[in-house]
Design brief:
The chain has 292 residues and is α/β, with parallel strands linked by helices. The chain folds into two domains: 202 residues, 3-Layer(aba) Sandwich (Rossmann fold); 73 residues, Helicase, Ruva Protein, domain 3 (Orthogonal Bundle), CATH 1.10.8.100. Helix content is 41%, strand content 18%. Strands 4-3-2-5-6-9-7 form a seven-stranded mixed sheet, sandwiched between helices. The protein has a two-stranded antiparallel ribbon with strand order 1-8. α3 links the parallel β2 and β3. The longest helix is centred in the C-terminal third of the chain and has 18 residues. It binds S-adenosylmethionine. The site of S-adenosylmethionine has 23 residues, from β1, α3 and β3.
Length: 292
């Protein structure tokens, strides 16, 4: 089977199988070989690697992955693509296509079975409608993931990589950066896909930390504080946490904690670094315990 990363071969496969793109599955297939090269290079795939690909589509990137990796598992939700993948991946003996919804898979059991004590690399041109749940479930679960190299909406890549102060910085930036080091590898325009998406795209590589870069007693509590801070991002941090349901933080407790940390009492959440959120959440937890 000829390699697929160009418009002619993609159209030929689609016509042969009378395939209809499904918007609900976020189907925008890559048709640019340079972009494919960049993804494969950024993912640093070698012959010892086990790769999980999410959403292989007609197998364009899968073919490249099979050529570089030791083995590949490709999880595709759309059953109409399975017979196409059987043909486009026919020549490769190191690939397994799994018909499944990635969000419903037991990834812990999957990793235990397939990784055999080694780590895996995740590579994908993600369906944009579920980018955040996919990335967060890969990061939050204790999976043996080395890195995640994915195509996402440009705006989402910017949010993942953003630092304090800017309008892109938020709960997603902090959640991603607690688990991984994000690096945007390439910006990709709509004409590299079929059909063309209405938004710009970017390839981002998330290199998973062995240990989070900050120490925090209760990460779940820290993320509740982070979410509450950015839910009402125009409020001061003290106001946002006071008004958030269920946190039980008085404005005075937040003011005292911020001042003790050397920060201004009327600071907004968007100015705090991850390390400062970690410190704030530990200190607030201790003061809530004291006053209980
Ligand atoms: N990898 C192909 C490419 O680059 O040409 C296709 C990428 S397309 C943006 C996203 C793919 O993810 C589609 O094949 C779509 O059917 C699949 N997909 C969508 N939702 C999924 C889910 N929940 N689980 C697994 N695959 C999914």
């Amino acid at each position: 089977m000829a390699s697929l990363g160009n418009p002619q071969n993609t159209i030929a496969v689609i016509q042969k199988y009378n395939f209809h793109f499904q918007k609900k599955f976020g189907q925008n297939f890559l048709i640019d070989t340079h972009v494919l090269d960049k993804i494969i290079k950024a993912a640093e795939i070698g012959p010892d690697d086990f790769v999980l690909e999410i959403g292989p589509g007609i197998g364009t990137m899968t073919q490249r992955l099979c050529e570089s990796a030791g083995s590949v598992a490709a999880v595709e939700i759309d059953r109409n693509l399975i017979p196409i993948l059987e043909e486009t991946l026919h020549g490769y003996s190191n690939v397994e296509v799994i018909e499944s919804d990635i969000l419903k898979m037991d990834l812990t059991a999957f990793a235990l079975e397939r990784c055999a004590g080694k780590s895996m690399k995740v590579v994908a041109n993600l369906p944009y409608y579920i980018t955040t749940p996919i990335v967060m479930s890969l990061l939050e679960k204790p999976l043996p993931i080395h890195s995640i190299t994915v195509m996402v909406q440009k705006e989402v890549a910017d949010r993942m990589q953003a630092g304090p102060g800017g309008k892109e910085y938020g709960a997603l930036s902090l959640a991603v950066q607690y688990y991984a080091k994000p690096v945007i590898v390439a910006n990709v325009p709509p004409n590299c896909f079929m059909p063309r998406p209405t938004v710009g795209s970017a390839v981002i590589r998330l290199e998973r930390y062995e240990r989070p870069p900050v120490e925090v007693t209760d990460a779940a509590w820290m993320f509740r504080i982070i979410r509450a801070s950015f839910n009402q991002r125009r409020k001061t941090l003290a106001n946002a946490l006071y008004h958030a349901g269920g946190l039980c933080c008085s404005k005075e407790a937040v003011w005292d904690t911020l001042l003790a940390m050397g920060l201004s009492a009327d600071i907004r959440g968007e100015k705090l670094t991850l390390a400062e959120f970690a410190q704030l959440s530990d200190r607030l937890k201790a003061s809530l315990k004291q006053n209980a």
